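Re: Re: ligand-bound prediction request (bumping)

Still looking for help on this. To restate: I need the protein modeled with zinc ion bound, output as structure tokens. Inputs repeated here so nobody has to scroll up.
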Amino acid sequence: MFASRYMPCRRCGASLERSERAGHECSLERLLDYQMFQLREEVAGFEHCFWGHLDSAYGRFEVWEAARRVRE
Ligand SMILES: [Zn+2]
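Reply:
Sorry for the wait, this slipped through. Here it is.
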């Protein structure tokens, strides 16, 4: 069986050569990008629910109430 010299880091997804794995430290930026990539469907689902809620009768009332409070 063919074994690749490179393996992705489980935490940040960086492609690492075998010799690099032991000393690898995930960069914060890459770690956040990877986590956001993994959560992309959840984020999109949240936005869909959020806008759907604002479009409901209760959501429209909340928007109206928030605007009223800001004006006071
Ligand atoms: Zn990593």
